[in-house]
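Hi U.,

Before I forget, here's the chain from the pilot set. I'm dumping it here mostly so it's searchable later in email.
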Amino acid sequence: MASKSLICTHVSSILSVTPVNNIEIPTIQRDLPLPDDSHFDLNNEHASHSVYYNINEHPTLLLRVINNSYTIQLSSVSGHLAPIRFNFPSPIISIPFIIPDQYSEAHLIACTASGSVYRLKLPVPALWRGSRLPKDWCSEHVVRSVTKDQLSIFHVSDPGLVLIGLKDGTILKLAASRPSGRSSFDDWSESIMRPSTGLSAILPSFHSRTGYNDIVAFASAPSPEFTEVAFTLSRDRHLRVWKDGCIGVTQIPGVPDGSSKSIPLLPPVQKPFIRVLPPVDPDDTDNDSGRRVLVFMPTSTEAFGGFFVQYTLMGRTNNGSRHLDFMFGQKCSISSAGSEMRDFVVIDDVVWVLWDKHGETMVEYCPLDPESDENSWLQASSLPQPDYSPAYFDDLLLQDGSMTEIFMGAILRPGMFSRLTLQTALQQYCDSLLQLPNIQNSCPSLTMSYPTLSERIAAVVGCTVDLAVDPSTGEQLWDSYWSALKRDWEGFIARCKDIERNARWPLSLGRGEGGCLVVLERERLGVVATDDAPLKLYKTMNGIIPPSARKDSASIVFETAWTLFNNLTTAQKHPIEANILTFTKEKPAFSYTDVAADIARRLLLPQIPENIAHFISTRVGSFQDLGDALNDSIDAILTLTDEVKLEHVEEDDGRLLLRGGSAASDFAEKWDNSDWLKGLTAGYISASVSARYQLALILLFLLMFIADQHPDQLHTEGPIRSAVAAFHGAAMVRHITLQTAGDPGGNQLELTNEDEFLAQLQGMRMNSAGPPSTISTITYSLLHVLIERNKHVFKLAESAHDFLRLNGLLRSHTDVDHPLLAEVKLIAKVRNLGYLEFAREVAEWVPTSPGVAYALARVRLDSGRFDEAATLFQRVANSFTSAGLIDNEDYDALVAALPEDFSRCTLATYYRHVANLYEELSLDTFVILFGKLSIDSAVPEEMVEDLWDKVFRCYVSLGLYEEAYMMMVSITREELQKNFIRHLVAVMCDNGEVDRLTRLNFVGFQDEVERTLAFKTRNSDPLAWPDYSKVLYAWHVFRGDYRSAGGTMYLQARRLGEVQCGPGEFVDLAQAQAQCYLAAINTLSLIDPKNAWVAVRVSGGDEGSKNKARRRQLCVDIPDDKFTPEARDELEAVQLSDVRQEYMLVLSRLDLARKYPDYDVTKFAIGPADIVSRYVQDGAFDDAISAARSLQVPMNGLFENLTSRCVQLSRLSHEHADDVAPWLISDRVQSWEGTPAQRGWRYLQESLERNDTPDFVYRKVALKKMLDEDRFARLPVWLVQFFEEHQPDHLIRMCLKYDLVEDALKYSIALVKGMDVGPRRSGKTRSKGHIDQRAQSSFSRWLPVLVLDQVLSVAEADSSMTERLSLASTLRKEIDAWKAKANRAGEELLRNQDSFFLKA
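Structure:
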């Protein structure tokens, strides 16, 4: 039989650990005890039972009983299906069963220690397509016939038949029938079956004491061969047959041949001691007749661990009983002595036994044949792993690297410790440290959170170790520090080893696809695979399997090399191996033979004993053709199986199936996404490559010996070169197998709705909520990530060899100095996966050819080492020049590293590609470098406009504006130049480089710059930065165009005035607007006043301008036949005076907002009149008068309000004057003498004198307001005198209007008395004795006769008013007197005129 290897992976490392769908199992029982973990020594995630279920056409399931037997976890090992956990209210006894049913269901049946039998109906295969669980998915039956304390062992034969072994040897039978046409079962019916049959029912048994009849094993025919016949084995070694009772019994002998009469009791531990095998010759009338029953019996002897006996179940007798016929016995192997059998199965007449050998898993197999003996057993072993002892780490610490890196690399080595082991060990480590006093203050990392598990381990382990200082000398005790840190790491690894030892405790066996054997441990899941030739050869060298009787030349060479290698200590081997590794990585300066001989003379020969050297020399001399033998040995190291082509076969439904050359693989699609199968393949590759590495290493040891001692035997250095190439490839792949793929916790991977995981999880949901959208992607190892697809399901050797063949790293008879396509593809693939540091390490294993240089440059680029990447990129560029021709192999490797569309590229295209790589990372300096190189090397027919654009934009991005400007000037395409100008102007403005922008000449492009800035100004947010209006203003000022500069700032001020803002933003906005107006005023003031105007384009329907009527129209409307009426625009001239007025309006609004913050000026359309009104309301008459004069607002209301307040002051006392007259508090008014009322009247008088109109409108308003307030009050003397002097008639009319007749009479009398008669003479005319005609016309006295008549008529109307009549009489006399004087003056005037004309 072929040699086998056990390949295992950790469950927590290759199966989805999150999210887990937890389902609570209900119970009808009450007062169940709470879980007690005090006596349980297992990790909650370590399984106490594990079963592998291979269901055809459906996901292969792994059932594990975890959480101290309270939880059943179902996981899929054939694809991405989320784990499902059923949490039971009490512990589960024995092993649960999953039984397929005919109604597309699977029944999960389990029995708990509380006496409940659960049936969980899982819809298969609809469950995996997203169907939800049915309403009756869970049913519970509480055992009534016996108490729960009597339950011992549990077995399910069929969905409708359950057998429960009791502690007295009886069996509780639970049967459930299913009515015809229904998929659900009725409730369970209970019955008791006794272990005795016939006469033995009334006679006591040999072992009748308590516990001797306890059942320790149950078995029945495997599904789907349903039968009610079941078999049990009790402690007294009685094998019983059951069917509605005990129908047969036999006693197992104490030795395989059945001759021993000593029958020791079996231990009271339930184990799978029985397996039921199908009959050799089936009987159609009796399905159970001829069934074979294979029973394992442990022994206490030290010769072997036990033996097997096989029985045949005979046909029924007349009374219905059956007889068990002994067939043969078979001893186990000698190596099983002292081991404990955990499980056994029979596959294709080969019995496989799982042993617990002192806590380690051991699998043995042997043909099920009477002729087999203890020497017929073979062992499926795995290659030994490092023991992680202190001595091992002492050797490991001799390598380069920090202590933390070395220990972290050891614990993260694929296959050593699972994620669960590391988490548990770290938690125990932290818990032990947290018990120390004040530890959280000195070691905060214990309670800190870290993104990954590996980072937390690196931070926590050794955190309590401090660097001590010698108190006497002050010297830092580094030796003590390193020793303490090493002990801390060793202690943590000891915890990991202890937990991992428990995790690797064997549990059971299963049958996988294709008849392979599945091995289940508490936390590992593996298979037994056939060894390939290197594995078998390496095991033979190590004595794990016996050597073949027939040896070829390669076997003799390896035996000789092994003898040499095995006689050296580890300390002696290590420096030689290190030199060989260095030798294979670097191109030697001398021949391979000379280098090998030099290593042998320096390191190897001094360590070899003389007798061993003599033996090796003798064996070397015995070869007839040593070269052929060495070549055969190298071929044995690198041998790979022939590739099996998989062809696509289309089914009738259109589904493609994969079929291999010899066996159907129609279930391969089911395993395409299996991380477990990838993990197994990775494990097998690791084992095979490790064996190849060791074989190549020992062969090089022998070749070095031959190169120095027997150089004449090597006619050429070909064998050494080939061996070095083989060792180089094996070492590189071995280096890959030792690499972890990151943190053991995994990364998050988004899933689609079509994913199998999502469908499964939705099906198991108990509520309407959807499932989580992420699962953990597996990071078992880097090799696990590199494996893309499993073409050979459970044919690990074929899958592993396909991977090695595809990567092409294992090669011989080639030039090791010449890297081929395989290395370049590997570097590129690892880089694409994100493992940059490892890609760099792989590149260091091979010479830097163009392909490797390019791949390494990409690694440097992704790693952030941009300068080194640029150097490598430029080195590769030499391969595209005519002077840098490379051979075909190097060119093929380079093409493989380049993107697919660069298979045949020019030097310019290559530089363009590199520039694009740097552009993706926004590395403008390198884009400029390679972009210019591409432009310089381009041929005329190549388009380089996009490169010009990239280089220009990179110059601008780096702030090299002058260089960008020079580049813009140097090109000839006008459209490209305009685009560059627009981009340059925008970026320089954005970066605040206005000064540098204005200083650039832009000869011939100034109009384009102005158009760009004007466009930006019109279309940008006026409040956004940069302020393009200021840039354009600076541009015009720098070039002396002040009118354009003023227009720019004026338009910006108008735009700011249209911005909607809140109260808190108005002040800033108004300040900016005022600054714009002021800048416009300043620049417009610098030019000729005739040209100090701004052309503003306004819409034909725009009425927002306050001064539109005064503006000069510059152009007519656009004709209606060309544009719609809504689109008509007009050009209007805004004069400098208009700008000043708008500026004063903004200042007034700003002052109003500052003085009255509660007054929201942004909510109303506040005009000039509103501003003045607001000042008047608050008594700020100085501000009101100033604003009214600046804004040209009439002051009627202002003086009316001021007069009213003065009248109020006259009525109030001095104490309350300040409340109504805040305008009297100013320094100027406070300096005046008098009462507040007197100061108020004086303020009114001076204000009228300064601001009244030529027609005295404001004094008239004041007079009217005084009379309105109180017509009987005394008018101010100054006001009366003013009107008596300038407009007495108005004063008289106002008195009449308010019925002040006496006052009107008095003012009329005074008017008439003060009226002169005759012309007024100027000083010059009087002296000359003639009349100035102009003066006569201007100053002729006019008496308001109508007004006086009205006064007289009103006064004389009431004869009872004697005072009025008296005053009226006096007025008439004065009028008459005035008339007489006027007549005399007229006559004199006529005489003087006549005399003047006569003289003339």
